[in-house]
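Anyone opening a protein record will find just a pair of labelled lines. The record below illustrates this layout.
***
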Amino acid sequence: MLTRRIAITAATILAALSSPTPSHAAEGPKERGGIHCTLYNCEVAVDVPGQAGGQAGGSTGGSGSSGGDDSTDKTVCKYKLADPQPRAGSLDWEGHKPGDGAVYEQICGWGDLNGNTIVRMVWLADPPAQETVTPAVLAQRAVDSMTLLGPDIASPRAAGKYTVGVPMWMWVNQSPTTYGPNTASASAGGITVSAAAEVSKIVWKMGDGVSVTCNGPGTAYTPSEGMAQSPTCGHVYSKTSAGAQNGKFPVTATSTWLIDWQGGGQVGQLTEVRQTNMQASVGEVQVVR
């Protein structure tokens, strides 16, 4: 069971301290139900299910886990040298004197769904180890800065009406964020990584149980094509959407982005997937005799 110490509000402290307890000297530490108070601040110990080992913080950073679900086990702490350093005699020195080590701002985050973060001042005898940034990490940072999106569907149109047995042409609009090419770079620790991204394929799920894979953006339809099928990306519905929810087929277009990167003496490739949803109304022509 891991114990976290987090800063709490004055209201919470007053509630926790409301029960009668023996008096203590004003300048000394106080303990109430897991709450530790000094003259200047209070901390509360919180048990974290599924974790074991020592208390978070201290003189080491990085991440670690003791088994179980990674989403709750990972603890990451970062350090920033306090500037200016606290005055001599400050509780932040934890009994040490200025010049004996240094005081750092410690920011710890837990890899859980609540996004818990703790910020406090700690004394360290030696400077903390700096984060190691690899070319692969910088490549992902470059990709994240591209803001890659799902396909910008030009056809089929959500407001359009389509007919059973009539070829449907599918195509997408092309831009740096929805199709590519898109380029970006990221730098840290004297290393610069450049990345280039472009969609390699789009998989269309037509809502009638059929999937269509297109290796390009598709071809725009023109009236001169008449009833011809698309040469690059199309579909022919064999039934109406009358039985579908809201009377329309749910259509999804999922693009696969391929990203090539290089830098720091390394090269590599990443894959990102993005999706766009829409609906298509499909009817049939009634012949009147």
